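User: MET7A protein. Structure?
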Amino acid sequence: MTEPSILFLRACLALLAMPVYLLSFLGIWEPFCKKIFFPFFLEKLSAVHERKVKKQKQELFHNLPDFKSPSGELKLLEIGTGCGPNFQFYPPGCRVTCTDINPNFQQGLSRSMNKNQHVQYERFLVAAGEDLHQVPSSSVDAVVCTLVLCSVQDVNGTLREVLRVLRPGGVFYFLEHVAADRSSWRYFWQQVCYPTWKLVFAGCCLTREIWKNLEQANFSELSLRHTSVALPWTPIEPHIIGYAVK
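Assistant: Predicted structure:
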């Protein structure tokens, strides 16, 4: 597992993905990816991923009603909503504000909203996780972020925004794929795939150790565990799941 072998295999993979690199060089790939490819891919991936993590998500979100505000309302902000795979786990009457940096998920998002009419949808904001200025400070009871911190520009900046928008005592739920153990073959292949994977899949980074960012953030309580979610023919398997309280 030497650096030269990683570089050689990266070059081989880049050769196989040469059409994408060429389209990227011409400025065509990014708009095509954001508007057509990634929304389509993410909806298909979400369907597979949801089958594998449904029980874990049910367990994760089971205490969500405990974080209602004193008025009895539960205001929830979801970062990187995508096509809305988490809506089914939210309690009835929950008021949801959806955000995503990519505004091209409308079809999948509308389908998910129609299936989950027990939730009140407040608004959709086009916003990056690192810049939620449209959301007032201390204004939400819960923030949810699943399979998003892998692709934000700044993980720590996103966590600072989470802490800002949460009211004192509010909760942040997360489920993210992360780097494998550095001594493992899986980490080796994550390193090999990293540049091409990031280009093809809208900035998704395979080797982030996101649990470290969460441990260093200023949450008063952190409940985090490492788990495994096998997605065939992908370098994604190690995940972290849990919640943190402001």
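The first strand starts at residue 75 and ends at 79. The chain has a mean pLDDT of 93.
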